[in-house]
Protein: Large ribosomal subunit protein uL3
Organism: Candidatus Kinetoplastidibacterium stringomonadis TCC290E
Amino acid sequence: MEIIMLNSTSTSYRLGMLGRKVGMTRIFTDEGESIPVTVLDVSNNRIAQIKSVEKDGYAAVQLAYGVGKPSRINKPLAGHYSNAGIESGRLLKEFRLNPVDSLDFTVGSVLDINSIFEVGQEVDVSGTTIGKGFAGAIKRHNFSSQRASHGNSRSHRAPGSIGQAQDPGRVFPGKKMPGHLGSVSCTIQNLEIIRIDSARNLIIVRGAVPGYSDSEIVVLPAIKKILKKRG
């Protein structure tokens, strides 16, 4: 399988990689500093489709990651993978590209981690936060609790007033109240890459990323750093 090396200098588009969160650990510097890090697996990012301006109206590359269970792959998607000549993936995502950069790719090839990221670079990592079910206002919105005594009865963790009287006679949309907590898309920005293990296709970033271990993530070059260079 061909390995693609990309040397793009364009700041208008961001090509990232798909992967999974392996877990958290810590590493020590030569000075003895302990750094909390998250290990990300971005192995076998294979190209499933290349879109062009002439055919599709825009340039993009579609990446597949992981191995999808046959029972979860429908017939149209199975045919899509078959046409590309690659194994079915557990994650499929499209990245917009500069039309010039799209010429550097071929369907079925695998992205090289060192052509996309480097040590010291800052990245944005997107994932799905851990679901925590139904939660009260204190846990969900970091409210303070009410008094423990002095006349307070059975309202210690109640949210308090949620509106006015007959006018307007309703609760305004967006009011912070109890409800479902977690299991939402979240992006952590400007995480520094501490190490890259090319042999095992691992990226080690400083800090935490959304989701539980083995959850799917998307790693992109930090957008704020790109905009700062352009500005």
